[in-house]
Design brief:
The chain is of the alpha/beta class and about 400 residues long. The chain folds into 2 domains: about 240 residues, 3-Layer(aba) Sandwich (Alkaline Phosphatase, subunit A); about 140 residues, Alpha-Beta Plaits, CATH 3.30.70. The two termini are about 25 Å apart.
Length: about 400
């Protein structure tokens, strides 16, 4: 079990911890010497917390490695993503309540736009709405492939999840999304002999899906990525002694939380204020709440510097709701960096704010931003070390050794 050295050190406490993740938080200046979206944002609340707390940076995987959201979140929860390999498909599927058992093969799907030559002109089909995508998902549900059961469910907007069940299936399969426009979707290629049957069956399914969608104006193709199955992860409460809740909007983040044993909350609304209201509602029942804000990442991927800045400001304006709960520890960070300048995830370290008024040591920084965090008292640490820091500052860890 990861972090098994912590188990004998765990101590009972009434203290509570909030982990607030602004997806894709880290960024870059659009011009040399300029501010990042975080630095440009008007964030009086986070700046106050920075002045009262301690700053640093996290490395999600290893230096220079660009992370996907799934492994980056596992790292935040203390699971080394190089040891615990989880396909994004399993996370997304579990996040919307689909059943994924060991031996099933799950994948995340995107509707995409293909031009007259069969090349991808838009990897997200113009970010079609959920209302437009649901009927298309219903069409995909009619596809049958002999020898296996296939379940397809809509996720959000242009995304869907697919789970294939049957005998002798293995999910070591390469993504079919080439990750850039101007290329045809790739074939699902088995990475080992055991996965060849599943790859062959998926090729049949994709061929039928393309035929069904051929007449659609935008969503006339599909790509699949993040193949995987239930990894049977050690449970969060066993590792940290924390009863944990997840407050998130997007299925993947609900999925990774559920796979580690957190209680995923169901609520209405998609704005940070809606999420913080849900955090407040469940706060008395949990020791630890993970709250996830997605749209910082979406704006970064769209190259929308000002939009990312605006989302950060909206989060800051709503933060008082959770501070009124009087948490002993608040950690604000991201799962990875998504610079608007790059329009994609990047390998850059992610800003980290640790606020623990009773046990924290203030550093010299007074504003929350990338360059301040690079000079912060926590230094640059692996993302997997966030939870031990939170436990210590919450008074939940005893001494190691005599």
């Amino acid at each position: 079990m990861p972090k098994d050295y912590l188990v004998p050190l765990l101590r009972e406490s009434q203290s509570k911890i909030l982990l607030l993740i602004l997806d894709g938080l880290g960024g870059l200046p659009m011009e040399a010497g300029g501010p990042t979206s975080l630095e440009a944002a008007n964030t009086p609340m986070m700046d106050r917390m920075a002045a009262e707390g301690t700053l640093g940076q996290i490395v999600p995987i290893r230096p220079g490695i660009t992370p996907g959201s799934g492994p980056a979140h596992l790292a935040l929860f203390g699971y080394d993503p190089l040891t615990y390999l989880v396909g994004r498909g399993a996370l997304e599927a579990v996040g919307i309540g689909m059943q994924v058992k060991p031996g099933d093969v799950a994948a995340r799907g995107n509707f995409c736009t293909l031009d007259a030559n069969g090349l991808i002109s838009d990897r997200r089909a113009g970010r079609i709405s959920s209302e437009a995508a649901r009927p298309l998902t219903t069409m995909l549900q009619t596809i049958e492939v002999p020898g296996v059961e296939i379940e397809v469910q809509h996720l959000k907007e242009y995304r869907f999840a697919i789970v294939m069940r049957g005998e002798g299936l293995h999910g070591e399969i390469e993504d079919t999304d080439p990750q850039r426009v101007g290329m045809a979707p790739l074939e699902p290629v088995a990475q080992d002999k055991a996965s060849e049957r599943a790859a062959k069956l998926l090729r049949q399914w994709i061929g039928s899906a393309q035929a069904l969608l051929a007449g659609q104006p935008q969503a006339n193709g599909v790509t699949l990525r993040g193949f995987g199955t239930d990894p049977v992860l050690p449970k969060f409460q066993d590792m940290y002694g924390l009863k944990a809740a997840c407050v998130a909007v997007y299925p993947m983040y609900k999925g990774v939380s559920q796979l580690v044993g957190m209680d995923v909350q169901r609520f209405e609304g998609e704005q940070p204020a809606d999420e913080f209201a849900e955090v407040a509602r469940v706060w008395p029942d949990y020791d630890f709440v993970f709250c996830h804000v997605k749209k910082t990442d979406s704006m970064g991927e769209d190259g929308n510097f000002a939009g990312k800045q605006a989302i950060i400001e909206i989060v800051d304006q709503a933060l008082q709701t959770v501070l009124d709960l009087k948490p002993e520890v608040v950690i604000i960070t991201g799962d990875h960096s998504t610079p608007a300048k790059m329009k994609y995830h990047s390998w850059h370290p992610v800003p980290l704010l640790l606020w623990a008024p009773e046990r924290g040591l203030q550093d010299l920084q007074t504003a929350f931003g990338e360059r301040a965090c690079a000079l912060g008292g926590l230094g640059t640490i692996p993302a997997t070390e966030i939870l031990p820091l939170a436990l210590a500052h919450a008074g939940r860890l005893g001494k190691f050794g005599a």
